[in-house]
UniProtKB/TrEMBL annotation:
Pfam family for this entry, one: GvpL_GvpF
A GO CC annotation given for this chain: gas vesicle
GO BP field: gas vesicle organization
Location(s), subcellular: Gas vesicle
Keyword Transmembrane in record: no
Entry protein name: Gas vesicle protein
Organism: Ancylobacter dichloromethanicus
InterPro entries: GvpL/GvpF
Keyword tags: Gas vesicle
Keyword Protease on entry: no
Family: Belongs to the gas vesicle GvpF/GvpL family.
Length: 268
């Protein structure tokens, strides 16, 4: 998502010149009253400095940028994310939607830091001392299929009855088998998802369950965690991996920008 502000233009300038005039690309909001810079490449590959615009306790993390609409290419998304990661290492962060460009520092100061001051300070307080971590778990395909057959004699019997029969003559039975396997997998997915959540619940401030991708994924979760409990969450996930690793593979990432719990959208 992007929000682009077009400033009033000088009639003597061409449309192209106006489009490429420098604005401010906005990465996020932090609590930092003193001006700051960050040693990380800005989006756009021009060598612009990542710096802050401050008003009281609030600061917007920005870099100079043409007033253009940024494609959500891998290169641009990585540049945006790397800035956020660098900022997170030093400050509590409220990420701003990718592709947000304002016309100048004065507009950002007035429209965001001044007009939304109380909202932003409140959100920063909610995020203070917390981090987002992501967890995905997926079945090992050969294991879960054997579990389905072992737990569902009717599915095994139907599967065995199709051995040696031509697809043309067993079309509807094969559809029925696929539906029954799908239903059994969904039941197992819900059960395994709940087992994972039960194991981490004590260490998590908030959870968000995102859509699972494909038939093998059991859980696609984001956790907002107090940094004081992060080591305990790490240990819990390591224990699950050791205990269930023969049937589940785990992917655990973070800390990452807290997109799943707060993302600032700017409407100029």
């Amino acid at each position: 998502m992007s929000a682009t502000l077009s400033a009033p233009v000088n009639r003597a300038r061409t449309t192209e010149a106006v489009a490429l005039a420098d604005g401010k690309y906005l990465y996020g909001i932090i609590d930092a009253p003193a001006p700051a810079t960050f040693d990380v490449p800005a989006i756009g590959g021009r060598g612009d400095e990542v710096h802050t615009i401050t008003l009281g306790r609030l600061a917007a993390v920005v870099s100079n940028s043409p007033r253009i609409e940024y494609d959500n290419s891998r290169r641009n998304m990585l540049a945006h994310t790397r800035v956020l990661e660098q900022v997170m290492a030093r400050h509590t962060l409220l990420p701003v939607c990718f592709g947000t460009v304002g016309s100048d520092a004065a507009v950002i100061t007035e429209k965001i830091l001044h007009e939304r001051r109380d909202e932003l300070l409140g959100l920063l307080e909610q995020m203070r001392g917390r981090a987002e971590l992501g967890l995905k778990a997926s079945w090992r395909e050969e294991v879960v299929f054997e579990e389905v057959l072992a737990e569902n004699p009717g599915i095994r019997k139907l599967r065995d009855s199709l051995v040696g029969r031509s697809p043309d003559k067993s079309h509807y039975e094969r559809i029925q088998l696929g539906e029954q396997i799908g239903q059994a997998l969904e039941r197992k997915r819900r059960e395994d998802e709940q087992r994972v959540l039960d194991r981490v619940r004590a260490f998590v401030h908030k959870s968000r369950l995102n859509k699972v991708i494909g038939d093998r994924m059991v859980i696609n979760a984001a956790f907002l965690v107090d940094t004081a409990l992060e080591a305990q969450l790490d240990a819990s996930i390591r224990a699950m991996d050791e205990e269930w690793g023969a049937r589940l593979s785990f992917k655990y990432v973070g800390p990452v920008p807290p997109y799943n719990f707060v993302t600032i959208t700017i409407h100029w």
